Structures are given as structure tokens and as C-alpha cells.
């Protein structure tokens, strides 16, 4: 997907490529995968961040 975007847009600027690729890439990730990753991030942050 990224190579295709670079080829079609003719740009090699990271920010411009990301702007075009990110929405498409996010659509490819299932909701269950997103929820699983968010759960793992929350658990990780709870371990390393003090909440007193």
C-alpha cells in the first residue's frame, strides 16, 4: 500500500504519505484487534504508572 502511494503520488515526504495511507490502513484492522491492543496498552500502563 505504501509503495503504491509513493509511486502514484510521486512524493517521498513521510507526512504526506502517512496522511494518505493511514486512513486506509486503519480500516484494514478489525475492531477486535483494535480492542485487544487497547486492552494490552491499558494493562501495560497500569503496571508502569503510579496512580496514587
Structure description:
- The protein is an all-alpha fold.
- It has one domain (2-48): Serum Albumin, Chain A, Domain 1 (Orthogonal Bundle).
- The protein has helices at 2-9, 14-28, 31-48.
- α1 crosses α2.
- 0% of the residues are buried.
- Overall average residue pLDDT: 89
Strand content: under 5%
Q: CATH homologous superfamily name?
A: ENY2/SUS1
Number of strands: 0
Radius of gyration: 16 Å
> Which architecture would the CATH scheme give at its second level?
Orthogonal Bundle
Largest sheet: none
Q: Regions with pLDDT < 50 over 5+ consecutive residues?
A: none
Q: In terms of structural class, how would the helical and strand content be classed?
A: mainly alpha
- The level of helicity is over 70%
Q: What characteristics describe this protein?
A:
elongated, Serum Albumin, Chain A, Domain 1, 52 residues, mainly alpha
